[in-house]
Amino acid sequence: MFTSEAIENQSHLFKVRGTCIITGKLVEIIVRRQALIDYYEKGMKAQDAFHDLTPGQREFFISGCSEEGWAQLYGESENDDNL
Known about the structure:
By secondary structure, this protein is α+β, with helices and mostly antiparallel strands. The chain has one domain. About 35% of the residues lie in helices and about 30% in strands. The chain is built from four helices and three strands; from the N terminus they run E-E-E-H-H-H-H. The longest helix has 9 residues, at about 35-40. It starts with a strand and ends in a 9-residue tail after the last helix.
């Protein structure tokens, strides 16, 4: 579902890429390496592991639905704090 690569000269940051399951568009999010480890290997909840991301960015990790896809489905942005 996602690919990731370290950002050159910033080994603590990764660029994560994936395709939105609703829009089919590519989504790129910059995340901390430790957040990826906490979420995927330690099983932390997205809101805890990715506390520095917006709710819409976290939703992309959970469901594969981007903020734009969420707006198409529900008519509002995931950033409206309706989670």
